[in-house]
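User: quick one, fold this
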Amino acid sequence: MPSTHNRDKPWDTPDIDKWHVDEFKPEDNASGLPFAEESSFMTLFPKYREQYLRTIWSEVTKALDKHNIACQLDLVEGSMTVKTTRKTYDPAIIIKARDLIKLLARSVPFPQAVKVLQDDVACDVIKIGNFVTNKDRFVKRRQRLVGPNGNTLKALELLTNCYILVQGNTVSAMGPYKGLKEVRRVVEDCMKNVHPIYHIKELMIKQELSKKPELANEDWSRFLPMFKKRNVARKKKAAPDKKKVYTPFPPAQTPRKVDLQIESGEYFLGKREKKQNDLQKKRDKQEEVSEQKNKEKLRGYEAPEEQLHENKLLKKSKKSKKRSHDEDEGSNKKPRVDSD
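Assistant:
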């Protein structure tokens, strides 16, 4: 239901950035007391990330200590845990710490993942594994999102001001909220068989239109491209193999080369005769090939069938001559006299 509380808001001016988040300082905690309960989050990580996490864990600890957040790496269980301490003053920083370990588990490098602790940076981990059941089709669509030499992904990063990483069955994105919304839309549509280039074209046009202040309060739909659906011919399924009739008896033994030679009488010939036979076969084969080639050459010298085109003017003149001749004959005929 739309709001009916429509009043003038003189303080709500266009220059206000409504997405801006002010920094939370220790003096902003009104009570000055530690939190009543401890909050903690745990994330599992794959086996191949174990070595990398072990090397950078000291840096992760330093980054979280600045915000008074405790962290723990469990290599036996394969998990990372973050929790608040008695010195933690920012109630939202534990959510940021949870996002940090989630990004580290999804193969985002630490120098990039640590930026999520900033107030103006958010993250989104998009699951893409459930969109397509066929594995080959899933790999093709995921590669389509990356593009040749990563060009499609790079263009998307520049247009949305986000960092994007495609890894396994997830796409990790970091950046402003507005950009993350666009990234999710493009990724989900790509897995639904909509090529990302269409969205990139749309985003480029929107970026150019946003630079023109005279179009700020106008509808942009007339400027955006309208793409038609194309029915691409799908790969035909191979015909299923017909079931063979079951026979309990084994198949008949195929004749050996020696058996075939005995049948033809070649086995009993001497070496010289065998050589002569082989040469004769080769000559016969060569003659056949040469005859075929000669026939193909002679085809080029054959005259093509000509289509006869009748001249309509000559046809008309012939008809008119025939008519005049018939009329002359009719006038020269003697009148018939009946005999009494």
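User: anything notable?
Assistant: The beta strands are 40-44, 69-74, 79-84, 122-127, 163-167, 170-175.
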